[in-house]
Amino acid sequence: MADLREPAAVSDGVESEGPRPPRQSVDPRCRQWWTSQWIVWILILVLPLAVLGILIAPARLWLLLPALIIAIAGVVGAVAQPRLSYRIHRWEVTDDAVYSRTGWLWQEWRAAPLSRIQTVDLVRGPVQQRFGLATVTVTTASASGAVKLEALDADRAEELVQRLTVLTQGVAEDQTTADRDAT
Q1: What H or E segment, with its residue span, contains residue 9?
Q2: Contact 151, 91 (CB under 8 A)
Q3: Which pTM was predicted?
Q4: pLDDT number for residue 8
Q5: What is the pLDDT of residue 21?
Q6: pLDDT, tens digit, 9 for 90 and up, residues 7-29
Q7: Which of 19, 69, 140, 169 could make a disulfide contact with 116, Cβ separation 3.0–4.6 Å?
Q8: Roughly what angle, to the nearest 10 degrees, separates helices 60-88 and 30-55?
């Protein structure tokens, strides 16, 4: 099994596991996955307007003009968003926590300590399967919701789920023992 953890940051010869940006980038195939999602949304929005614009002559301008604007904006988004997101999205799993960084307008950096993890799920939608990708969802007791590691290579995601399951079992047993000893 591949090592899914990169070495900790080293400063003056001392390893640090403190807050820092995650190091692992998502799979490069995510750019095609995100582009295909944009194309689907563009088609969902543009096709009805275009068809109605062709069929309803008096409203042609009022239907085709928005269709054209949406199509142009959508193509720009389909080209720009996947490239920007690929640069920004990061993840990492250490012996202490799961880290993720997402978003390009509203950026979010999350850390889920292994002791707080309740479930680890693997999701592969039909389009993700086509590109060999998967999403690992790490659920905690946090009110902020689950930490999602999207656009991972499917095989690597399966290894990650197995590794997190093993790591969290050990942490949960340690936590249970510590709770029992404290009482």
Answers
A1: strand 9-11
A2: no
A3: 0.76
A4: 43
A5: 78
A6: 444 433 344 454 567 999 999 99
A7: 140
A8: 180
Tokens in use for 88? Answer: 């920004």
Give the whole-angstrom CA distance, residue 157 versus residue 75: 30
State the amino acid at position 143 in one-letter form. Answer: A
**pLDDT of res. 71:** 97
For 124, other C-beta atoms within 10 Å of its C-beta total: 16
Query: CB–CB of 136/152 below 8 Å?
Result: yes
Amino acid 122 reads: L
pLDDT < 70 stretches in the chain: 1-20, 171-183
CATH topology of domain 91-182: PH-domain like (2.30.29)
Q: What is the pLDDT of residue 104?
A: 80
Cα–Cα distance between 97 and 113 in angstroms, integer? Answer: 4
Domain boundaries, the chain: 30-85, 91-182
- For 130-149, b/e burial (b = at least 16 CB within 10 A) is ebebbbbbbbbeeeeebbbb
